[in-house]
């Protein structure tokens, strides 16, 4: 994962490119779960805790997903992340990317902008098909504090990018179980080559009691304090293996909203080499809205 700012960003900045081959049945839903509205906005609270429950930091994370209509429909995905560490330091990151409807293939990553001393990690890129080889994708990077550096890589993988990992997983059919080849585009930028690894997907029925009754009722769920979900585990299948990222997607559509909304994201980081819990990171949905 990215070696930037602080470990909290392992979730805020998962950059992946996902290949079109898999070792078992990993399939997309026939319809994109967010396509019923022009735009969808999700706001989350973020908390990082040590193994003994001590607060290491907290913040907010906002995603805005917009449908761009036309002959070839595309989606724009914007994110805003702000996190205050226990030492008082503040990390801020914004990003924007565009991807296609058909294969959810990334077109451009317009900008990922870091705050303060971390601006050296700024980057953006454009991905496009090689005119002489339609099966090859070209990824043209610009990076650095003022995007002064350039690098071009090629790949035969369909490219995906950004925090969009959780959006991509949202589109996978929950009956899927298996491994799909993925690429971490930031690692590829650093290493100078497109490196792929296996990402294992598995979903199971679950429920959450993290939300108050009035919150759930406001989202259109007639329940006291339990939200039915599909719990999805995303695990890296090659070194460094780590522990899975867990994402809870609402089983039912929000009132007047979309389906499979990501309501909670959780990661438990292990210590090396013991494997004991070092810290946990939790993203919990606090506000949801759509526009037509």
H-E string: HEEEEEEEEEHEHEHEEEE
Strand content: over 45%
DSSP helix count?
Answer: 4
**Alpha-carbon distance between the termini?**
36 Å
Largest sheet features: 15 strands, antiparallel
* Rg from Cα: 19 Å
Name the strands of the widest sheet in spatial order: 1-10-11-12-13-14-15-2-3-4-5-6-7-8-9
The geometry reads as: globular
What can you see in these coordinates?
The protein is mainly beta and about 290 residues long. It has one domain. It is built from four helices and 15 strands. It has helices at about 10, 165-170, 185-190, 215-220; strands at about 15-20, 40-50, 55-70, 75-85, 90-100, 105-115, 125-130, 135-145, 150-155, 175-185, 195-210, 225-235, 245-250, 260-270, 275-290. The chain has a 15-stranded antiparallel sheet with strand order 1-10-11-12-13-14-15-2-3-4-5-6-7-8-9. The longest helix has 7 residues, at about 185-190.
Write the layout of secondary structure elements.
Blueprint: H1 9-12, E1 17-22, E2 39-50, E3 55-68, E4 74-85, E5 90-100, E6 106-114, E7 123-130, E8 133-143, E9 149-155, H2 165-170, E10 177-183, H3 185-191, E11 196-208, H4 213-218, E12 227-236, E13 245-250, E14 262-270, E15 277-291
Antiparallel strand pairs: 1-10, 2-3, 2-15, 3-4, 4-5, 5-6, 6-7, 7-8, 8-9, 10-11, 11-12, 12-13, 13-14, 14-15
What is the compact description of this entry?
The chain is mostly beta strands and 292 residues long. It has helices at residues 9-12, 165-170, 185-191, 213-218; strands spanning 17-22, 39-50, 55-68, 74-85, 90-100, 106-114, 123-130, 133-143, 149-155, 177-183, 196-208, 227-236, 245-250, 262-270, 277-291.
